[in-house]
Specification:
By secondary structure, the protein is mostly helical. Helices cover 74% and strands 0% of the residues.
């Protein structure tokens, strides 16, 4: 909430400082702080303020730390698309879609025209009878 308020007030550097301070506190104390969430929020602020390299680097770091989490992959896709790198964004959207729990899949598809029914359809299993029919 505080970060959104600071961004609305056009104070992105203060928002970045608050998030970095929170990450430092998390490293130095025993307090339970969701560092993944804070890093994702910081990357989002970087993206919104067009610090694209910082955003992508942070999203990649979070993705490496949490390989099954769709959020950093989706963040990378959004930043790449915003920069006009649709060829880079498309496979990232597909990966994020495949990693996402079912309740988020529709939202991801609605975020971009780069996802279609063809590249988000689950792979179809072929039964022996289907394989035989395609060979004929």
């Amino acid at each position: 909430g505080l970060v959104d308020l600071l961004l609305q007030q056009n104070r992105p550097e203060v928002a970045v400082g608050e998030l970095k301070d929170t990450l430092e506190i998390a490293q130095e104390s025993d307090r339970q702080i969701d560092t993944t969430g804070v890093k994702l929020l910081l990357a989002q602020v970087y993206g919104r303020t067009e610090k694209f390299e910082g955003a992508i680097a942070l999203y990649e770091e979070v993705a490496d730390e949490n390989p099954g989490d769709f959020r950093p992959v989706l963040g990378q896709a959004l930043v790449q698309q915003r920069q006009g790198n649709e060829e880079v964004a498309k496979p990232l959207y597909e990966k994020a879609f495949n990693l996402a729990p079912p309740q988020y899949k529709d939202q991801i598809k609605q975020m971009t025209p780069l996802l279609t029914d063809e590249n988000t359809a689950p792979p179809q299993e072929t039964t022996p009878s289907q394989s035989e029919e395609t060979q004929k």
